[in-house]
Amino acid sequence: MATSSLLPKETIKIFAQAVGVDELADDVAQQLAADVEYRLREITQEAIKFMRHSKREKLTTDDINSALRLRNIELLYGYNSRDPLRFAKVQATRDLFYVEDRELEIETIINECRLPSAPRQVTFKCHWLAIEGVQPDIPQNPPKPANKPGTQDDADAAAGDNAGPGTQSSLTRMTDDAEVKPAVRHVLTKEQQVFFEKICLAVLGADVNAFHAAINSLRTDKGLHQLMPYFCKFITEKVSDCTQKFSLKVLIAMMKMVEALLMNSEVHVDHYLHQLIPAILTCLVGKRLCENPAENHWELRDFAAGLISHICFKYGRIYATIQPRIIKTLVHAFLDFKKPLTTHYGAIVGLTRLGQYTRQLVLIPNMEYYCNLLLPATTSPNPVKRSEALMVYSSVLLAAGQFLFDSSRMYDQAERLFQQSRQIAEAASMVPTAKKRAVDASGPNGAEVIAAAADSTPRSLSPEELVPLGTNYPQLFGIFGEALFPFLTHRKDDLASALFV
């Protein structure tokens, strides 16, 4: 069956000879011509579709490449829509054309083209970028920005020029001993900015799930180092605003953020404690934290006291001045009777959470005097003042009960230590002299161990000397009475005997 095609079979034979097939039968060439025409029509139709979808009326090589890509055919290389195609006709043929390429000589290319210079050999040279934060003025470093006209530097320079030979400009006098450090610009990436904005919106928003997700992210994420200054500034600004707008919800959210950052082990929060501690103390001893006094701002103060306790116990050894300064602030709020009862409550709760020694040295000596001044407020006709006084009284009672409970536990520990030391002393007294010498010679500290055990008499390790319960319990019982009994379930027998001594 004869097939007709627009492509002559001579064209197919020429292409066959180009790929190495010298003798190609006429019927095979005719069949190949029909197949090639079908493939060309198919590619052309697909390319026209791309052209129409692109809202164009001119077919380009990009449309052809898109059609080839659609059919999983290798794309054409070396042509684009902007390159002019100049075809030349092949001699002795009728419909065969080719792209004419101009022959170039190497000498012409060298003379006409501007070739880059040969690269130099790679070398290394060291120089100082900065010395103690100051950039040295050397050619390798970027130049310093020039001063704008009319600034203070120009005025100082003019004053130096007009000064006499025995005077010196103020700029020279100031920069002789001053150490000038260039300002470092802190830049956040776009992703960090978006993350910071989403965290702030989630914390301040009404969506509970988003709030918990944001807090969990602050507690566990590892890449918050660059965002810490921004989070601390955000917290301090919101706390400062809420002390004037009285938004208890925002203050609780800010303290939750502080807790999450403190619990994140991958972030060095100790570098930002000077910004966070004032905000926490504001929520702890602030005069007024909410619009309505009936709101539960006591829970916020208890939570802030826990944060202060955590900071002191975690960073108190690293920074020795943190806990004394916090205690000084709380003691001033506790002993100043001109301050409101809400401030007294925060100070008492904060001092109670700072440990047994703080309670023994600060709260217990002043408890009787403070309670005598507090009791009239518990029967005040003003219901708000009466409820605040009762809350403060409960916090004082809790501090006294916690002190007695911890003291009784220390009494048990001291008693066990005393029993162990007495057993060691008895065992050492039963050892013969020869064996004692053998023990002394067995190690460098053997003699010291035996001597310390022998000196561990009941008088030297007496529990009454370590924890003087007989002194503190009668005083506290005289203030609170039987309200202390729920706290004394740990050592009821010893504390009861101490009461009647």
Describe this structure in words.
The protein has helices at residues 9-18, 26-53, 61-70, 106-112, 152-162, 170-177, 190-204, 208-220, 228-245, 248-263, 273-285, 297-315, 322-335, 341-353, 356-378, 383-429, 433-442, 446-454, 463-466, 469-480, 492-499, and strands at residues 87-89, 97-99. The protein has 501 residues and is mainly alpha-helical. Strands 1-2 form a two-stranded antiparallel sheet. A hairpin with a 7-residue loop joins strand 1 (87-89) and strand 2. Helix 12 packs parallel to helix 14 and helix 14 (341-353) runs parallel beside helix 16 (383-429). The protein is elongated and about 130 Å long.
Biggest pleated-sheet summary: 2 strands, antiparallel
Our Rg estimate from Cα atoms comes to 44 Å
Shape: elongated
Mean pLDDT across every amino acid position = 75
- Order of helical and strand elements: HHHEEHHHHHHHHHHHHHHHHHH
